[in-house]
Amino acid sequence: MRKALEGSSDSLLWISVIRLKLRKRVEALKLLENFHPDIIVTDIKMPRMDGIDLLKAIKEDHPHIEVIMLTGHGDLDLAIESLKNDAADFITKPVDDVCLNSRLSG
Q1: Contacts for 87 with CB less than 8 Å, ≥ 6 apart
Q2: What is the value of pTM for the model shown?
Q3: What's the domain range around 92?
Q4: Rg (CA), the chain
Q5: Number of domains the chain contains
Q6: Smallest Cα–Cα separation from 54: which of 66, 65, 42, 36?
Q7: 3-state helix, strand, coil in the chain (%, to 5)
Q8: Which of 33, 36, 51, 57 counts the highest number of beta carbons within 10 A?
Q9: Which of 71, 37, 40, 72 minimizes the C-alpha distance to 56?
Q10: pLDDT, tens digit (0-9, with 9 covering 90-100), for 3-62
Q11: Do the beta carbons of residue 89 and residue 103 sit within 8 Å?
């Protein structure tokens, strides 16, 4: 992620980017009580939490935060469900740095 942002425009300087390994959706939401990122990039399929449920919870409590969903499955149904729940974007893995940079810069 850091590599994708190196050549970004000044408008991205205010974006908070953090990579965390959280075990539960509750941990992620608790973190948002004190940390206020502009964008969250999350995987849809995770060992102990569902990315779609996380997206819904983030948007319910923090509608201003943009959420980009990642998937290694390229499932059209997941993409549609993500976008219906107000995800900013849906990107398939492996993530191309140029593609991610383009999506982050709007």
Answers
A1: 55, 67, 68, 69
A2: 0.75
A3: 2-17+25-104
A4: 13
A5: 1
A6: 42
A7: 40, 15, 40
A8: 51
A9: 40
A10: 444 444 333 333 344 455 566 667 778 888 888 888 888 888 877 778 898 899 999 999
A11: yes
Outline where the chain has alpha helix (H).
2-5, 25-31, 51-61, 76-84, 97-104
C-alpha 104 chain-centroid distance:
10
Read off the pLDDT of residues 57-105 as tens digits, 9 standing for 90 and up.
999 999 999 999 988 877 888 889 999 999 999 988 888 888 877 877 7
CATH of the domain at 81: 3.40.50.2300
- Both tokens of 67, joined, read 């959420």
Identify the sign of the CA torsion 68, 72, 75, 78.
Answer: negative
Residue 85: count other Cβ atoms within 10 Å of its Cβ. 16
